[in-house]
Every structure is written in structure tokens, then in C-alpha cells.
Write a structure and sequence with these properties.
Elements (H helix, E strand, L loop, with lengths): L25 E3 L4 E3 L2 E3 L2 E4 L2 E3 L2 E2 L2 E4 L4 E3 L2 E8 L2 E3 L2 E8 L4 E3 L2 E8 L4 E3 L2 E3 L29 E3 L1
Parallel strand pairs: 1-4, 2-5, 3-6, 3-16, 4-7, 5-8, 6-9, 7-9, 8-10, 9-11, 10-12, 11-13, 12-14, 13-15
Length: 155
């Protein structure tokens, strides 16, 4: 039932070489519907539906993902649908993407077959609002950008 044991010793991991800052993306699964704003200092993957604004470092919209609201991120990769404004340093629309609204970008790539209705405006790096490394709201208060404490916070 069992094969011969391997004579090669298991490698020892060097704790100094392990990346500590690698984090798992926050995933909105296909069966999840969110009403509210999302704020994260990392990556958000949307495969479900979000009705609200999203502010993060990296946003990935899956093929079945749908967002209605304003998106502010460093990088946006769209395979699904966004209805609203997208403001990001780098924006990629895959062939399955459906964009209804304006896109403000520094870099924009659109695959053949992608649907885009709205204006595209090139902006400079200085005009893109950076995503804070720590975006946890104070208890009972608001975030620095005015998002109420009821907003969902991931990170």
C-alpha cells in the first residue's frame, strides 16, 4: 500500500526568507450579495455582487462578478461587470468585461470583445489617491476618507 520511503531529507525552511507581508485576498464569492462599501489595504476578488464603493490596492472582478459603485484602486483587473466610475493606476479589461461608466487611469489595456461604454481619461500618478496601509476605522467613528463605520473593512 505504501511505497518506499524517500531517503532524501525534508528541506529546512529558513525563517529569514519567508515573506511575511503576503496576504490572502478577500474574496466575495459568487453566492454573496453585499450592500455597502468595501475598504482594504490589500487585494479584493469579487465573484459575487457588490452594491457600494470599493477602495483597495488590487481589485479583481471575476467573470460572474458585478459591482455597482465607485472603484478606487492601484490595479483593477476586470473579467465581469462594473457600473460606475473606476479610478486606478492600471486598468485591464478582459474580453468578458462589461464596463458602464468612466475610467480614469494611468495605464489602460482592453482585450478585443470587452464592452466599454463611458469616457476614458488618462491621469498622472500624482492625482491618484493612495490606499492607506492601515484602513481600520476607529470604533464609533469614520475613516479618514469619510466612509462611515458601517462600511465593511477587509485586510
Amino acid at each position: 500500500m505504501f511505497s518506499k520511503a524517500s531517503s532524501a531529507p525534508m528541506p529546512i525552511l529558513d525563517p529569514n526568507k519567508v515573506e511575511i507581508n503576503k496576504s490572502v485576498p478577500s474574496i466575495i464569492s459568487a453566492d454573496l450579495n453585499i450592500e455597502g462599501n468595501l475598504v482594504s489595504s490589500g487585494e479584493i476578488q469579487v465573484d459575487g455582487t457588490v452594491h457600494g464603493d470599493i477602495r483597495c490596492k488590487v481589485l479583481i472582478v471575476g467573470i460572474k462578478g458585478q459591482i455597482t459603485g465607485e472603484v478606487n484602486a492601484q490595479t483593477v483587473r476586470m473579467h465581469g461587470a462594473i457600473k460606475g466610475t473606476v479610478r486606478a493606476k492600471s486598468v485591464f479589461l478582459a474580453s468578458t468585461a462589461r464596463m458602464n461608466g468612466d475610467v480614469e487611469h494611468e495605464s489602460l489595456a482592453i482585450e478585443p470583445g470587452a464592452y466599454m461604454e463611458g469616457h476614458c481619461k488618462r491621469i498622472t500618478d500624482a492625482s491618484i489617491t493612495p490606499v492607506l496601509d492601515s484602513v481600520r476605522p476607529p470604533i464609533g467613528g469614520r475613516l479618514a476618507n469619510g466612509v462611515p463605520k458601517t462600511a465593511l473593512v477587509a485586510g
